[in-house]
């Protein structure tokens, strides 16, 4: 698991998610889709708050697809192993 603060470009080790029921259902749906299509190139999802002021991006990575991610994400994944 790698967690990144995209604004400060720093890794995070602990976070707490406070989701509404609707957001949790949407996140579960996104995760299901990711698991059903793990090899689909660039597959990721953005879970946004109703006012679009907060966002969670979810994706699945593995050694074969790391190069598909932005260089910052690649660095986070590789450096945190």
Task: Explain briefly what this protein structure is.
This protein is α+β, with helices and mostly antiparallel strands and 81 residues long. The chain has helices spanning 21-36, 71-79, and strands at residues 3-5, 10-12, 44-48, 55-59.
Task: List the keywords.
single chain; 81 residues; alpha+beta; two-stranded antiparallel ribbon; 2 helices; 4 strands; 31% helix; 20% strand
Task: Give the biggest sheet.
Answer: 2 strands, antiparallel
The oligomeric status of these chains comes to single chain
Distance between the ends: 9 Å
What is the general shape? globular
Structure annotation, total helices: 2
Mean pLDDT: 89
Low-confidence stretches: none
Give me the secondary-structure topology.
Layout: E1 3-5, E2 10-12, H1 21-36, E3 44-48, E4 55-59, H2 71-79
Antiparallel strand pairs: 1-2, 3-4
Structure description:
The protein is an alpha+beta fold and 81 residues long. The chain has two helices and four strands; from the N terminus they run E-E-H-E-E-H. It has helices at 21-36, 71-79, and strands spanning 3-5, 10-12, 44-48, 55-59. A two-stranded antiparallel ribbon has the order 1-2. A two-stranded antiparallel sheet has the order 3-4. It starts with a strand and ends with a helix.
């Amino acid at each position: 698991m790698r967690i990144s603060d995209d604004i400060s470009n720093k890794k995070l080790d602990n976070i707490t998610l406070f989701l509404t029921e609707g957001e949790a259902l949407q996140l579960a749906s996104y995760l299901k889709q990711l698991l059903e299509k793990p090899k689909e190139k660039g597959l990721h999802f953005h879970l946004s708050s109703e006012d679009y002021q907060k966002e969670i991006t979810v994706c699945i990575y593995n050694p074969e697809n790391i190069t598909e991610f932005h260089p910052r994400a690649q660095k986070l994944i590789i450096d945190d192993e």
